[in-house]
């Protein structure tokens, strides 16, 4: 069909060493393969993605649906970020066994810890199903009609697609709904914690260093996949065995230097690279600042309470990290957009697009798009801000409000159908238990008092003394009795009575208006993507991230964030010691690490200068979801573990700029150094395949020269 033909027009431009983009691994042959090789890669497209033979993609797992992980041994050993495994590390921690503070290392398989609900999913194969999914779609259809037919076609395709009984399938939209791919997947549910450094290594620098280079953070953790007797996915069982992977990544001991090729392979979450200028301006000038203020108000309380109590620190470690991460990211995003003059550059691009429409006689067809965006965003902006502010207060920062929100959802289900009682009780009970597992009422009360004024609602701190929700036992008592009694109990609760009108306003007014005003923007964005490819077919287009498997390639490079400042691409253990502040929650250093540094006891993990590299920079185009992604060298070996971006470069979700956008990776030699020399877990090192690609290739070249002579 016409839309599909348009999609392939963009591949005709001349291949070069251009960087940026998150590419579908099954479509790398040609342009992408040439670009990678121009950047120094020795890999073929088939080395990266192959359905019939083992390839790099078989070692890359989607970690719990939000991060990436990679298999690094033939016994299913998996590497991901410390912050990706943080929730699991926290769940096994207590005051007696504080694995967040002290770290955890299983010295044999029996000591590895199971994690209920944790999964790792692999991609078996990828298939273009655009023709099937878009069959019957016409320009005369309404957006609702289009989406209904697309959903019907997609479900039909998934239902009949051939796969093994233990496999699953899903479809995803690409290029704003102009193209669709089907993924055959395998999901493993028996995932066990193997090792994690103490937070003073895995979270070194904490909020101060987050999104900032130079980083000195050993942001890694180790897990293991277990499978049944047939090496297939299975729920946890003591009889399960370590998984035998189709492929695992060898680890290079040669490390990296400036200019080396790097490929990051993973599951990036969400990007919006083709937004109009008016949207970028709205996000950075209006939308982000209000949400930054709410999170900042919450963090002020959380950080203080965590410093005062170890028990509170353990309870809120994971929550604080989630809240702080986006807070600082949005600040950096705004800085990057301003510094790169992104809004003005996007307007210049839009002028080029408008000119192309005129030259190709497409004004009647697409000339309304940009003026319509301006009109729609002007009307959409206030409700978009209000809706997100509600989410920040009721679902992100304040737990009492979150409990009332969940209770309201159950009440509405009961009003709609009284027979939902038992299911509603079960759902809400689980939600309340999850929150109360790591809940401190005094901290939460302080957060409430700080954030609610920013939402424009009056504060009534007395509800914390009157409500049943701040105690799990009394909260569950609200759910006792029949449907009528449960509804009555909820409405008689002080916190619920306070929150209910605000929640009703959200559902009945705010969210309804948001959905109504967002729908035409979504439809117009799809049309804009189609128009761009038709009007400017020689431009560079890659699909936005959507939590599917992608390849992004680049090189090890430093950068200049501002005038007269330049960051070298590699940081070292020396920097950890330079930043060391005894007993500081962000910059404390374990005594054993200090002793290893002073003795220069680095084993085989130092570089040619006798120093231990900790982190390095690359030009890879990454985003949330790439946390834990492997950084792979020119030969397919693991050299780094992606975990962050530089502060000014977080704008790459909307505007990738090769001058200042950099991803930050833990050097694998630092990971190995910590596992071996610090933790004494050499049995894990023995599992891995350690290689010297630079040395080995140099020897091969010398042998070839001798033969020629």
Structural account:
With 709 residues, the protein is α+β, with helices and mostly antiparallel strands. 46% of the residues lie in helices and 15% in strands. The chain has 26 helices and 22 strands. Strands 1, 2, 3, 4, 5, 6, 7, 8, 9, 10 and 11 form an 11-stranded antiparallel beta sheet that branches. Helix 15 runs antiparallel to helix 16, helix 15 packs antiparallel against helix 20 and helix 15 packs across helix 21. The longest helix has 42 residues. The N terminus is likely disordered.
User: So what's the overall shape?
Assistant: globular
**Using DSSP, what is the number of strands?**
22
Rounded to the nearest angstrom, the distance between the terminal CA atoms is: 59 Å
| Helical coverage, percent range | 40-55%
Derived structural class: alpha+beta
Percent strand: 15-25%
Total DSSP helices: 26
- Compute the average pLDDT: 94
* Rounded radius of gyration (Å): 26 Å
Largest sheet: 11 strands, antiparallel
Write a short abstract of this structure.
Pfam families: Peptidase_S46. It comes from Winogradskyella damuponensis. The protein has 26 helices and 22 strands.
Compile the SSE list and pairings:
Layout: H1 2-7, H2 31-38, H3 45-48, E1 60-63, E2 67-71, E3 77-80, H4 86-91, H5 99-102, E4 104-105, E5 113-114, E6 120-128, H6 130-133, H7 143-160, E7 167-174, E8 179-188, E9 190-196, H8 199-202, H9 206-209, E10 221-227, E11 241-242, E12 251-252, E13 261-266, H10 277-308, H11 310-339, H12 342-359, H13 363-366, H14 369-397, H15 399-416, H16 421-436, H17 441-451, H18 463-466, H19 472-477, H20 483-492, H21 494-535, E14 550-555, E15 559-562, E16 565-567, E17 570-572, H22 573-579, H23 591-599, E18 613-618, E19 630-632, E20 638-645, E21 663-667, H24 668-678, H25 682-687, E22 690-691, H26 693-708
Parallel strand pairs: 12-22
Antiparallel strand pairs: 1-2, 1-6, 2-3, 3-10, 4-9, 5-9, 6-8, 7-8, 9-10, 10-11, 13-14, 13-19, 15-16, 17-18, 18-21, 19-20, 20-21
Helix pairs in contact: 10-11, 10-12, 10-14, 10-17, 14-15, 14-21, 15-16, 15-20, 15-21
